[in-house]
Specification:
TIM Barrel; globular; binds iron/sulfur cluster
Length: 357
């Protein structure tokens, strides 16, 4: 969880230092000991293509020079890299605020020692269920629930700042209430002003174009059933939807409206610098030179990108709550302006307007 002071600092920097990569998501590997049904990236790169520890360390130094504050180690399962400790230590020594995304499953005694001596700013742990059956129907690894839970308890015992997130899909949505209650009991609840539980129902095709994860998506009635399991969740969801239904702003023909590319970047296991985790459009090799000019050049390309069709997404008043962004559309529909039917249904349903014909 970000403290009020850190959020204020970040907002000040965002308003004064546009187009600076304040946050970098480093996808250290797409390998993972799990084989999740919904995974968008597993095994979409080969280990021999991954940057070495010294290349990642060099990138960290250059990110620091470029003005970066936040580093998130993600994957795949970043912690499962043998040289994770070496890369992580460098990030901490350079003074970054470090977040680690993990399932907890590969955490070893050596990792516990590392995090005790050099705690991450926060650790975000994906939890797929409150019991082995649902959890392992997602991960497809027998015994994974027991081991992951044991490691999460060990991480908690270290006093680390942990937040739990639950990817929700057909295989596990009936566990939502139990996972939320468990997370709040162990890691704090919104009522205590600690928001250490989040969930994510968005499932995308794999980066290699395989759409098989999409069959695990929740449709509106299942989402309603899921949210009904927790009295706060439905209210939070409705509040977020209302505040995000806003008229489309900015340049009318602008293709990308999300703006996150102004202050964040992603670097994939092969060293491609991207503005979005789901696309390599406008990406470039992080290389050896200064990162800031390359980041800003990429940003200029994103900012200039224009629509070239009369897609209904261009003027849609639901864009603020719709997950059918150009990157997701390119991945799923083969064209960045084609509405993704699933997201279109969800957006209309969430706004209470019924399902579009
Ligand atoms: S834990 Fe994450 S990276 Fe690993 S297979 Fe599951 S979704 Fe993919
Ligand atoms: S997919 Fe549908 S709801 Fe989403 S922006 Fe496009 S037209 Fe609007």
């Amino acid at each position: 969880m970000r403290t009020a002071g850190v959020v204020a600092l970040e907002n000040r920097l965002l308003s004064s230092a546009k187009n600076t990569p304040l946050t970098a998501y480093l996808e250290l590997t797409y390998r993972c000991p799990f084989n999740c049904v919904h995974c968008y990236c597993k095994n979409t790169s080969s280990p021999k293509d991954e940057l070495s520890a010294s290349e990642w360390k060099n990138l960290l130094v250059r990110l620091k020079r470029a003005g970066c504050l936040w580093i998130t180690f993600t994957g795949g399962e970043a912690v499962s890299r043998r040289d994770f400790e070496e890369i992580y230590r460098t990030a901490k020594e350079l003074g970054f605020l470090v977040t680690v995304f993990t399932t907890g499953y590969p955490i070893s005694k050596a990792h516990l020692d590392l995090f005790r001596s050099l705690p991450p700013y926060t650790m975000e742990i994906s939890v797929y269920g409150a019991a082995p059956r649902a959890y392992e129907s997602v991960t497809r690894v027998p015994g994974s629930f027991k081991r992951a839970m044991s490691n999460i308890r060990a991480l908690k015992a270290q006093g680390l700042n942990i937040s739990i997130k639950m990817p929700c899909m057909t295989a596990n949505y009936r566990e939502f209430g139990r996972v939320k209650a468990w997370a709040e009991k162990n890691f704090g609840s919104l009522r205590e002003n600690i928001y250490n539980f989040s969930y994510d129902c968005n499932i995308y095709p794999r980066l290699d174009g395989d759409t098989s994860p999409c069959k695990y998506r929740l449709y509106p009635e299942q989402r309603r059933e899921m949210l009904a399991q927790d009295r706060d969740a439905r209210a939070e969801h409705e509040c977020a939807v209302k505040s995000d239904v806003v008229p489309v702003g900015g340049r009318k023909t602008a293709l990308y409206r999300c703006n996150s590319w102004r202050s964040q970047l992603f670097i994939n296991p092969r060293g491609r610098m991207k503005f979005c985790m789901f696309t390599e459009k406008f990406s470039r090799q992080a290389g050896k030179a200064s990162l800031l000019p390359a980041f800003r050049a990429m940003g200029r390309q994103v900012a200039r990108a224009s629509t070239c069709t009369d897609s209904p997404c261009g003027t849609c008043h639901l864009r603020g709550i719709c997950y059918s962004c150009p990157a997701a559309a390119l991945l799923e529909m083969g064209h960045q302006e084609t509405p993704v039917p699933y997201f279109c249904v969800l957006a209309h349903e969430a706004a209470g307007g019924g399902v579009p014909q």
